Amino acid sequence: MAPRKRAAKPKPTPSSASASKSADIQNAALQQKIRAEIFPSINPYTPSFNIAIRLFFMVRALAAITSSISDCDETFNYWEPTHYLQYGSGLQTWEYSPIYAIRSWAYIGIHAFMGKVFELVIAKKKMQIFFFIRMCFAIICSYCEARFYRAIVEHVNPRIGRYTLVLLLGSAGMYSASVAYLPSTFSMYTTMLAFAYALQSPSVSSGSRTYKAVFWFALGAILGWPFSGAVGIPFVIEELFVKGSEITKKKDHWRSRRIYRLVTAGVVGLSLLLPVALIDYFYYQKWTFVPFNIIGYNVFSGAERGPNIFGTEPWWFYLVNGVLNFNIIFVCALASMPALLFTYWMNLPKAQPQDGKGPTSPYVKFIFRLAPFYVWLFIFTIQPHKEERFLFVVYPLICLNAAVGLFIVRGWLENLYIKHLAKNMKSDHSYVVTFVSVAVISVFLIISMSRVVGLYTHYHAPLDVYGKFYDNDFLSHAAEMHNGTEANVCVGKEWYRFHSHYFLPDNYRLRFVRSSFRGLLPKYFYEDKEQSHHRPGTWMVPHHMNDLNHEEMDRYIDVGQCDYMIDVDYPSRAVNPEEPRYAADTQHWTKYYCQPFLDQANSPSLTRAFYIPSLDQTSNQWGEYCLLEKSK
């Protein structure tokens, strides 16, 4: 029996090909219509990348010069180890003990190298090097923000991009976070670069988006802060389940290709562990994977250890923090997803794709663009231990979400005006709608400026006071007093506002006198006096260290051994017997330099958080932040 021949697949007739082409055109038109309904406004002028990076740098450079260090973790876990690598002296926290090894020397080494280059080429004074390193942060952040902003313009919407530009520039939160020496700030940089690619539409044919986004997510998690990888979770889900803008054939196995591409990109990203582990091996003199150590400590330490022993906060902590640093646009950011879903519901019949082969609805893609902020906020809200810097990673995403939320509301108002009010009003609807968005952004900018000026006016004194150590008059005076011998600069209750040894000249050492604080203070790294370039303190196990925040008495010296004292004096507070008013003790101390400093406990919440010209001096209580010299 002759084998049966399979019927040949009929070739498409010209009419069927024409119908397919027509369907594709209709599908594309539908996508354009849906996008227009979400974001109906005409494309506005948007600054180019070169203009944007200049705008960002002007603001970030100002922050680098004026911002005080607001987190003692920045000083003792990052500036001090950097000073140790560069100069051979510095204070060590328990995190750098090889027993625990939850801080990476690879991250520190990059900054120490930068500092050494500046020392050899540009500046000799350590305080100048501090500000040069900060200026590098300003440059890097400006570049990342400009890339992030242009990606929004090109792949989301020009007007949303323009809103985001203004919100990034005006945010009080970004002002402080942009130049902080913290892994969470570094991860904020890499998150912006990752989103420069993640904001593109998913593609079946090209893997550029996947590889580049995963690389930056991985770099932020491995070299910076491992928990920052959580911000990439929606991106991974989108890669696996969202087709994107391309029209595919019925049997096109696009998901298989995406899985292969994502796994390959993940392997490439994880390969970054190798150079980081090699550098940490060189310094710790043992194999250790710091990102895993950090996760283990924070997640699996148990009740007696872990981050909770350093304090816990209520669930609403990040909501209050968000309002302080982003004011009304934080509310817009929180409302962006509900606003998008409401718009989707209102346009539900039009939002459905024609068939499974068509491109993904813009609504679905926008859900994945907005989701990372919510994922991050949820994860860190349920953690008992909360700190402001934990939100740094998503600060740019707050601005993006807020811009989307503001623009969706603008679209609602525009449609409402056209349908119901335009017939009875002669003015152009664009002016009316623009007025609303400009009013919201103007209020945001005014409140943000009040916050930034308030932070400077109320809390800038430590930067000024520590900077006095490099004043020419002080150096001349100190040279006569100490004649090159070591001088002790003491701190008691103000230990956590120390701005690092970059603010102390050579032969000046920070010392602790006992106050009411009963936790674990840092101690000096081991110093090799014979070999100036040797840093054995990175691998030697220090004595009297623990991960339980238990006080160690070897940290303190007697106040009689102090040559200088940094202290804040609050006249309106009751005297604590464990924390004498050194500034008032004129028999033993002389005020060399003092600056006003806000008495936070005795000032109203509103005027201590924001600068209000008419109330700042009258409503607030003030103290003096002083550099005191021992009386002779």
Automatic annotation (TrEMBL):
One of its GO terms (biological process) is protein N-linked glycosylation. Coiled coil: none annotated. PANTHER family: ALPHA-1,2-MANNOSYLTRANSFERASE ALG9, GLYCOSYLTRANSFERASE. InterPro entries: GPI_mannosylTrfase. This is Mannosyltransferase. It is a multi-pass membrane protein. Its EC number is 2.4.1.-. It is found in: Endoplasmic reticulum membrane. The chain crosses the membrane at residues 105-123, 129-148, 160-182, 213-237, 258-284, 315-345, 366-384, 390-409, 430-449. Keywords: Endoplasmic reticulum, Glycosyltransferase, Membrane, Transferase, Transmembrane, Transmembrane helix. It comes from Basidiobolus meristosporus CBS 931.73. It comes from the Eukaryota. One of its GO terms (cellular component) is endoplasmic reticulum membrane. Belongs to the glycosyltransferase 22 family. One of its GO terms (molecular function) is alpha-1,2-mannosyltransferase activity. Pathway: Protein modification; protein glycosylation. Residues 1-22 are annotated as: Disordered.
